[in-house]
Design brief:
alpha+beta; 10 strands; two-stranded antiparallel sheet
Length: 287
Amino acid sequence: MSAQGAGAGWGIPATMSHIRIFAHMAKILRSWAAPPEDALVGPPPAERSIAPSGDNETAEFKNGSTDVQERPKEPSLQEIKQRIDTFNSKVTNCLIMKMGEDGTYTGFIKVHMKLCRPVTVPAGIRPQSIYDALKEVNPAKTTEKRTSFYLPLDAVRQLHISSTTTVAEVIQGLLKKFMVVDNPQKFALFKQEAKDGQVLFQKLPITEHPLYLRLLAGPDTDLLSFVLKENETGEVEWDAFSIPELQNFLMILEREEKDKIKQVQKKFSSFKHKLQEALRETEGKPG
């Protein structure tokens, strides 16, 4: 197995050598402990460029400076009520939005699970019951045993959320429903839009409110839908991995390093043998 093969499934850049990967992981193992499972990813660092989200993105960070873009004016309660009435008039499946006295509103969103990697779940426990849900009992915390499996491709989960529910809370809610114990940092929520015959994906910031986006787009999921995918940042999110996972990486890399050394030694030995034979053949011939 190559270094690329071992690391590709975990977001490790293919250009990183064995030595660099090994050094990074060893440094982390010595310097910090595993983060709690329910830790959420924080705001992106200032030096990381943020993909613009149309006119809704507040800022783009470049070289440490902030270029602030104006957000659209927040709609008034009357405008929101009108939008909700328009939204509900187009609904055909009874999944309407309802506005509360405090100005917040509730509704439904569907999230498509498009995960390419296996997820970690508790081993040997029953599925969550209605009693567990009502009593907020988390079966995942009743055992330390873990196992991994692949979620069905494009599984769909419907969530009833509020206008104040953030992307981070949606991700946490989805992981809890599927009893996934992986760190939420490993996942990201994307919006999928159809524009001019093209399907566009865009990663949503963790502070975004998905129900507001649903309200603006209307109930047609062909125009806007939500997708949960792996959090691909272009960089290795080391703090998203637990100590056992990093130790497993080290074991794989050590095994691959030993195999590579054996391959080089075997190749060198073969070349040396052929070179010695060629020299012996030339010794008996006149110059």
